[in-house]
Amino acid sequence: MPDRGEIVVTGRGLEELPGSPAYSTRELDRAAIVSSASGRIEDVLTSVAGFQQFRRSDSRSSNPSAQGVTLRALGGNASSRALVVLDGVPMTDPFFGYVPFTALAPERLGSVSVTRGGGSGPFGAGALSGTIALESADAAALAPVSGGLLVNQRGETEASASVAPRLGSGFAVVSGRWDRGQGFFTTPKDQRVPATARAAFDSWSVGLRGVAPLGPDIELQARGLVFEDDRTLRFEGADSSSSGQDASLRLVGRGDWQFDVLGYVQARNFTNVVISSSRFTRVLDQRNTPSTGLGGKIELRPPLGEAVNLRTGVDYRRSRGELYEDAYSAFSGAITARRNAGGTNTDLGLFADGDWTSGALVLTGGVRADRYTIRDGFYVERDAAGMLAIDERYANRGGWQVSYRGGASLAVGGDLHLRAAAYTGLRLPTLNELYRPFVVFPVVTQANPDLRNERLEGYEAGVRFAPTSGFSLTLTAFENRLENAIANVTIGEDLRQRRNLPAIVARGIEADMGLAAGAFRFDGSLAWTDSEVRGEGDSRELDGMRPSQTPALSASATVAFVPGPGARLAATVRHVGKQYEDDLETEVLPAATTLDLFAELRVAGRLSLVLRGENLTDESIVTRNSGGSIDLGVPRTLWAGLRWGL
Q1: How many CB atoms neighbour CB 250 within 10 A?
Q2: Predicted confidence band at 120 (pLDDT cuts at 50, 70, 90)?
Q3: By Cβ atoms counted within 10 A, which residue in 46, 85, 161, 197 is the most buried?
Q4: Does some domain include residue 4?
Q5: Which pTM value belongs to this model?
């Protein structure tokens, strides 16, 4: 603790408990975050093997509603099975459950912590496959003025700027980012038609953050974020947009009685136009999907001595939203139906987490009780004349669900650390999964208001070998069982429905290695997973099949040379194995291996020249395969530009 007369603000929450090493965690520092070849945070996260988006495309060339993330091969789902938080605030969309990656600019971040597995704790509902904790950069990591401007060979631009003045003992950060471009053709050349369009994108975000001391041990943190993202996918007129306005207030106390009090509000929206892949006319206009997220937590840590730590508290989340969409005839262009659907989900969690240290042994455990509700659900459809065709109101439901986690870590001889853990977790179905049907033409996927909560049981054991400060090797073996897994299940030709599968079982091995020797550094990560569906009844034919969008092998390796301040050369190789588009294993997405390069050279003062290369071997990355209709990921892309102060 600092001297009582010294005021130190960090802009962070409370430190993790000593027992946290019992779970599989990977840390990414600021240097790795701001030196990716694409400049996208989702690209940074792919350096953690086992991290998976619903599709392989990044946030420049995918539909925003498909940006769900998971870990440990628990099945592709457009909603997130991993919990993503920024400065303690859950970032997933209240209606869809996707992550607004374009609003999470890497240059605003100071660190990223990825915990694979380990479900319960504060904001634990939703952390089925793990937690991705993003921490904003503080004034010490940011220059008073910084920015960058880059351009690629297609004329696309990436511009960012921030001002981070110190204000007395506190600080403020005002930052903005704007990405725009014509995009590339996601459609292979032999499948293009006159209506084929590039994946154009235009996104911006503005962030405001302030941290101020209220005393030697207490600080107030405030954050605001406004963003908008517009994209076009595959065909002219197939436009989508997402927008948001977020605000949070946090009070952190680091005295004898430590506390963390947080409240937040989110307003989000989404629009999407679906174009027929045969007649190239509008068939669906999801013109308005307003949603709000509201929540907070109160956490208290009493002083219990050097050997015992305890965190206890309560957290709350409410998600409310609805959709407004119009269906059109592909032949006449006339409206055939107007639809409106939505509802409200809530979760109130009571949690306690603690650990006990005895010499080289740390025992940790936690319990969480969630009171959840799924209520106010409805689906209304009217015909072109405005006459009521469908009016469904769904019964409210709710209940209590208890989750736990526990583990142990043991330092053996100082160089070797052993650990083991077991845990359970909970995820409510999103409003999108419950009430919103969608179309990726010609495939229609129906919603399902009767979906049950997903529940995970997991076990893992690991070893970490770190004989020197410059070398570490971590191995983890795990088994996770996801019961009531929500998946898009084929029920007819070009027809699917969201349904609960009996279970998805994933067993695997994760390996992470770091090596630093002088100016050189190597970071590698690998995940191999045997994942399969346990099917019965209506899902009997899926028994033993691999979940859709789930590779068996993923790996990443980065070699970096850092000769001095403001200089960095890095090469990254990534591999993702074969996976399937659909639940029946009929549509293959082949394996892909890519090479990225990053170079930064100090020119003068704080000014640096930056060169970046994405997918330098121009690998064909298949991101979608629907009956032979293919979408591709980013081709070879070369960037050049300048940075100041980063």
Answers
A1: 23
A2: low
A3: 46
A4: no
A5: 0.94
